[in-house]
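User: I'm putting together a teaching handout on how sequence relates to shape, and I'd like one worked example. Could you take RNA-free ribonuclease P from Methanosarcina baikalica, show the sequence you're using, and then write out its predicted structure as tokens right after it?

Assistant: Happy to. First the sequence, then the structure tokens directly below it.
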Amino acid sequence: MLKQRFVLDTTALTDLQTREVMGYASLCEGMKAILDLIADARLQFGISCYVPYPSVYKEMHEFASRNGCDREVMAKIDTWLVKKSPDRYRVNVTSQIFHEYVAYMRERINRGMGVAEDAIWEAATECLFMENPQNKKKEYKEEVEREVIGGIIGKFRNKYRAALRYGILDSAPDIDVLILAKELDAAVIASDYGIEKWAEQLGVRFVPANTFPMMIKEYLKHLPESEKEPEPGNGNKKKKGPSEELEFI
């Protein structure tokens, strides 16, 4: 059987929906649980999980550090994820992909511009309908900023993000994940619609982050009986000889 290879985006370890499915409230606990499954899969089936280095690897470390995860999480990332820099100069991508991406980005930029124009019109209209006592210019300015502009900017940011960023590759780590997966003929693990969309364009297999732990558990459920760990207290634990060593890729 061909050994499976996966390339992980940061969202493969940090996705909220994945944690909810697995029953973990804490991000650090969820990361540990996923990395433990990856460890079992590597030891039992030789399944390799890669992380683009340094872009995604650094992103994972920073995310874990910002959320107060202990050194054990960092050690598991370093131990069970294979760090590899994508070969950006040798992986071939057809010119049609770039043509479609440029056209797609132009469309999304125009959508973002439309959202900005709507926000400007809304702010101007709201200000016109407010009372403007001339002798309280400073207080009026603060009221406009607080009551009108602040709220509209908040809505603008959410709409702009949805119009422009959702579904696109908007960071170097996203591109590194796809290039490395293409290079290794591996599946991508992510919770990112942009990566999913362009994985399809590149002919790269895609596995949603929230189903990845279930996939690994399914592998482990079907481990041959002779290779399963014996019950505690059972002295007939089988030892692996040199011929049974796993080849890690």
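A couple of points you could highlight for students: Residues 7 and 50 are 5 Å apart (CA to CA). The longest helix spans residues 95-128.
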